[in-house]
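Hi support team,

I'm filing this because I wasn't sure whether my run with nicotinamide-adenine-dinucleotide finished correctly. The job status page said complete, but I'd like someone to confirm that the output block is well-formed before I use it downstream. Pasting the exact inputs I used:
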Amino acid sequence: MPTPVTLIPGDGIGPSIADATVRVLEAAGADIEWDVQVAGQAGVAQHGDPIPEPTLASIRRTKLALKGPLETPVGKGFRSVNVALRKEFDLYANVRPAQSLVHSKRHYDDIDLVLVRENTEGLYVGIEHYVPSGGDPQAAAESVALITRSGSERILRYAFEYAVRHGRKKVTIVHKANILKFSQGLFLDVGRQIAKEYEGRVAMDERIIDAMAMNLVMDPNRFDVIVTTNMFGDILSDLISGLVGGLGLAPGANIGTNAAIFEAVHGTAPDIAGKDIANPGALILAACMMLEHMQQPDIAKRVRDAFVAQIQDGEVRTRDLGGTAGTTEFTDALVARIRG
Ligand code: NAD
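And here is everything the job wrote out:
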């Protein structure tokens, strides 16, 4: 029985890279029944809603989605369609692997690390207000950084379990507990407790966020799995994609208890939309993460190996990686390579 998966092609370059990804997965023999749904601008165009009910119902049913980038329509009552989806399905873990796949003087050649970002708490809970004073209604502004013990436990446990499942050796807990003694202190305390349960199996290491930023730039190879709170994770995840070659190769997964959504980290790339030049790599790598999550690791490996071989051969690369191939040409070559 094929596994049902919701496919949201998305906006801008989304439909073209989603089409490429579906072709590649089919060529590799992935056992998937796609349920194609819309969101973002495409959702507004079709249903008058950026997160239409049929799309939500589909994800509730399949519990799995592969999502292209979405454009959030202005003035629809929320900050981002992506954030709203994370909230709706309580997708608490944002997982971003960074692996050196292309060799270039500007990037590291030997990075293989995974960042696990808490996705629902911290400074991004959206609890903010102005504080009036001396006749100025906006004399100050306050934002609450909410950290809960249960939220910390589930993300830290996820990171250690991820390390065990993927044969990784070390989890680095990144924090600012030296200054934010309560909120960041709670996160670190919980991390230390959970680390004890994994002693002998997964090593634990702690870093303060500012030192971590420097360490990642100067000596990234010493890290393996990194786990941190929402805003630090947001910043570090873009930093690590920059270390290995940029957004065209950066996949991400949003994992919850009842659903998981896999996506490319990049946006809709309006500057190149409709030109058949986008790199479908990030979404293809996100689909590989999804295949592993679906217990189809052999298919994931077949796709990833062929993809890596193709970009390392260097003959057929998209422009963002210094080649000349368009999306279709790149995908045709990858499909041919997979079919052998
Ligand atoms: P972007 O990632 O769309 O583009 C940044 C730059 O990277 C552009 O020059 C673009 O051409 C290039 N680029 C991105 N993906 C590429 C690919 N696959 N191949 C080749 N080049 C690629 O970022 P932006 O311009 O800041 O955002 C555009 C829109 O995307 C906005 O509406 C934003 O809200 C949305 N967005 C969505 C998501 C998401 O759905 N996950 C993430 C980020 C931004």
